[in-house]
Every structure is written in C-alpha cells, then in structure tokens.
UniProtKB/TrEMBL annotation:
GO terms for molecular function: oxidoreductase activity. InterPro entries: NAD(P)-bd_dom_sf (IPR036291), SDR_fam (IPR002347). It holds the Pfam family adh_short. This is Short-chain dehydrogenase/reductase family protein. It comes from the Eukaryota. Keywords: Oxidoreductase. SUPFAM superfamilies: NAD(P)-binding Rossmann-fold domains (SSF51735). Transmembrane segments: none annotated. Belongs to the short-chain dehydrogenases/reductases (SDR) family. Gene3D superfamilies: NAD(P)-binding Rossmann-like Domain.
Length: 328
C-alpha cells in the first residue's frame, strides 16, 4: 500500500477516505464540536467513514444538540453521543470524566480540539488563568481521569492497537518564548501580556504534553500534536484574535478576510490534519510527532517546544496544580 500524498489543500474527507480502514470501528472522543468549526468537521468525517462511536464534547447543550442532529441528518446510522464539559472548570472536568468512565466502550482516540481564544486576563473559579486551564490544565486532568478507558482500547481487539491522544496546537508555538511556569502556577495579571501571547504559550504546552505523555506511558499511548492551519472560524473572530489577524495582514480594518492571503484554509482543509493525526498508520512508530498539512513536521518545532526536560517539568508542575499524580 502506497503512502497517500497530502498537501495544504487536502480535506478531512480525503484523509478519512485514505484511512477508512483505520477509522472503521473505532471509538473516538473529540472536544470542541460546534457546527462551523474544525472539530465538528473532523467528527462528521469520522462518523461518515465508519467510526463505531463519536463522543462530541462541548459546554453548550444546544450547540451539541445541533451538531448531533446535523451529523445524523447526513449519516442516519452514525452513533453520536454528546457530552457536556466546561474546560474552564475542573469540577466540570471531573463530572464529565466520571460519565465517560461509566460508559461501556473503550476509547481508541481522544482529540483535544477545544480551546479558549486569546483574551484579557481572567481567573476561573479554580483561581487559574482561563486560557491556561482551558487549553492545557483541564485537558491534562481529563486525560488522566479517563486514562483507563484509553488504555482499555489496547485489549479489546484481537489486533494489537496503540490508542492515540491528539492535541490541536498551532504554529503559534514558533512565536512564543515558551512556558512561563511561574505564571502557570501563580497567575499574575501584570505578567499576562497580550491575549495572543498567552494563547501561544498554551500551544507550546499542548506539544510538550504530547511528548511527555508518550514517554511516561512507555508505548501504551501514542500522542501527537498538530498545526491545523489558519481557518476563519468563530474562534478567529474573537476580539483579540481579530486584532492579531489585522496585525498580520490577514483581515482588513472591517474584519473581512483578505483573499490574497495564501495562508487561509477552508474548514474541511483545516480539519484534515486532525484526522491524519488520529488515524495515519505510518505514525504508529513515530510517537510525539508534530504535524502540519497532514504530515510529520517536527522540523518546525522550536527548541522550547521539543525539549524533553521542559516537557517533564510541565508534567510535574501540572500535577502540582491539580493536586494529583498522573502515573501509569
């Protein structure tokens, strides 16, 4: 079987078709699945290509219902299960994890797609900065709490299978000085900086978490991170994101996309790398890989997002923040 040839214009459905045998029969959980986003498109494609179960996760029940109904209208046989989870609340993370653990199915793939957009400094009820907790601390805790469900996927089939955890990161890691551990543990509004800078710091954490998850699980879980591309979703229309897009010359003063900017992807194109990270069998022996345009792109990682020592430090600090050890 030849390796599929992908590019920046490849769509999620094209990737799903290429790896349909890998998608078929899998149980997948994906966060951030509102209609009009890349998480929804990835969920739709996985259902279309024969996933056994797709758990769509979000904090808004109405948006989850719309997402479920939209997929089922196209694919009546799809097994879609909504799950309420507010990633800005660790109590909500624990509640959602308990619901997942009560389900009978193992989880072959978990995709951390949801994220808090760039914004001003804001503390959550857990006294954590909202972007840090939504984009890293909550996914860390959630993964820890449902780890047994993920590991169970190794033993439910007669064929040896290594479950996957996928993190939708971004090229913002290239524009960030890296993790500020003091700020992560003791949030200070004076050190927050621009909202876009805080967002980029969390994108570094996504990549580092993937690297360390592979190391600590000792081959039991394969984790990957990725840059989906620049896609004009609702996420990109938030105030701080809009300001950044203007600075980069990607939208005009009215917030309209500048069509000549050749970096833009459509939503189907933006979801493609997520599907590749979740199912491309050529990644089986490449744990911790960072992907762009559906292929490995570790050369794009800057030193502070590929340093194993920093990845280990982030794990230890995050354990301290949640007050629990994450061991295998």
């Amino acid at each position: 079987m030849s390796t599929p040839r992908f590019s920046s214009s490849t769509t999620a459905e094209e990737v799903g078709t290429a790896f349909a045998e890998e998608v078929k029969g899998k149980n997948v959980l994906i966060t951030g699945t509102s209609v009009g986003g890349i998480g929804f498109e990835a969920a739709r494609v996985m259902a279309l290509k024969g996933a056994n179960l797709v758990i769509i996760v979000g904090q808004n029940p109405e948006k989850l219902k719309i997402a479920e109904e939209t997929i089922k209208k196209e694919i009546p046989t799809a097994n879609i299960r909504p799950l309420i989870l507010d990633l800005s609340s660790l109590a909500s993370v624990r509640k959602a994890a308990a619901e997942v653990n009560a389900m009978p199915e193992a989880l072959h793939v978990v995709i951390h797609n949801a994220a808090a957009p760039a914004g001003p400094f804001k503390l959550t009820s857990d006294n954590l900065e909202v972007q840090d907790v939504t984009n890293h601390i909550a996914p860390f805790l959630f993964t820890k709490l449902i780890a047994a469900k993920i590991l169970a996927a190794r033993t439910v089939t007669h064929v040896q299978y290594t479950p996957r955890v996928v993190f939708v990161s971004g090229s913002g890691q290239e524009h960030s000085p890296g993790v500020d551990f003091g700020q992560l543990e003791r949030p200070d509004p004076a050190k927050h900086g621009r909202g876009i800078d805080a967002l980029f710091r969390t994108k570094c954490m996504n990549i580092l978490f993937a690297i360390e998850l592979c190391r600590r699980s000792k081959g039991q879980i394969n984790a990957y991170s990725l840059h989906p591309g620049v896609i004009y979703t609702n996420f990109m229309q938030k105030e701080d994101m809009a300001v950044a897009l203007k600075e980069w010359g990607l939208v005009d003063e009215g917030g309209r996309v500048i069509e000549k900017a050749d970096v833009w992807k459509t939503i189907p194109q933006g979801a493609a790398t997520t599907v590749a990270a979740a199912f491309d069998p050529s990644l089986n022996d490449k744990p911790g890989t960072y992907l762009m345009d559906c292929i490995a792109a570790n050369e794009k990682l800057v030193p502070h997002t590929s340093d194993p020592a920093i990845a280990e430090q982030l794990w230890v600090v995050t354990e301290r923040i949640i007050g629990e050890s994450f061991t295998f």
